[in-house]
Amino acid sequence: MRNGRRLLLTICTVLFTTSHALPQDTEILHKDTNTYTKDSIQQNKDSTFKSDDSNYYKFKVKQLVLPASMIGIGILGVYSDWLESKNYQIKDELRKNIDKKITIDVFSQYVPMAAVYGLNLAGLKGYHNLKDRTIILATSYLIMSITVESLKRAIKEERPDRSNNQSFPSGHTATAFMGAEFLWREYKDVSPCIGITGYAVAAGTGFFRMYNNKHWLTDVIAGAGIGILSTKIGYWLYPTIKNKLFKSKHLKNVVALPYYNMKGAGICCVINL
């Protein structure tokens, strides 16, 4: 089990990535003019999406490097004999130390994304309000789900336990890392430890997918890359989606909660018009 713990720590270390710090907003008031009134300043502060925040949602090529590399490694694992042999080595090592399955990964995949809403309910505010973070989460989840299901149907990789041919990529891991990146982006300015904890939970989810003999290592790596990239795309698309589809006057309240049952998983969204 020592090698298993070492593998978990390695996954957690390799997969965690940070983003650029948020630029600080500045307000310059000219004493000799009445250009801005107190009311207009307060209204600007209360606005969630400001023009000054455009850099926060700006597409940056270098943000593609880590998730794209992880997805690439996962795809190579399907066709590379060397990576396939490593997958079997890790599987055999884990199976030597398994007494029984631990199904915590079924629930832990949702912990990072649920934590964003839980922390807000507890009074620790993130970067976005309820409606806006729900738009981002729903967009990210949709992108992640479509990508995972499309690859599963196209590649048809057999699971380590031979239960079916939907091993690649790991959907549980993709969900967990999508939530971890979401948690990181919402709370990195409050405390980096919050985001790091989310990534630790996501890495643990990936580890237990292998521990329970449901996925190969390369499935988990690819799933993590897809999850991270899906959230990044969700933030890149957010200004366009909000401005085109979600005008403030149309939506008063939005609540989204993840759900899981034996037939599938997803997000339940309630909109109060």
3D architecture notes:
The protein is mostly helical. It has a domain at 59-248: Vanadium-containing Chloroperoxidase, domain 1 (Up-down Bundle), CATH 1.20.144. It is built from 10 helices and 2 strands; from the N terminus they run H-H-H-H-H-H-H-H-H-H-E-E. It has helices at residues 2-15, 38-46, 65-79, 81-96, 105-108, 111-121, 130-155, 171-187, 192-211, 217-245, and strands at 253-261, 264-272. A two-stranded antiparallel ribbon has the order 1-2. Strand 1 (253-261) and strand 2 (264-272) form a beta hairpin. Helix 3 packs across helix 10 (217-245), helix 7 (130-155) crosses helix 10 and helix 9 (192-211) packs across helix 10 (217-245). It is globular, with a radius of gyration of 21 Å. The chain starts with a helix and ends with a strand. Residues 1-5 and 7-51 have low confidence and may be disordered.
* Broad CATH class of the domain at 59-248: Mainly Alpha
What overall geometry do the principal axes of the alpha carbons give?
A: globular
Straight-line distance between termini: 53 Å
The run of helices and strands is HHHHHHHHHHEE
> What is the helix tally?
10
What is CATH's topology name of the domain at 59-248?
Vanadium-containing Chloroperoxidase, domain 1
Rg: 21 Å
Order of strands across the main sheet: 1-2
Strand content: 5-15%
Main sheet: strands, sense, barrel: 2 strands, antiparallel
The overall pLDDT average reads 79
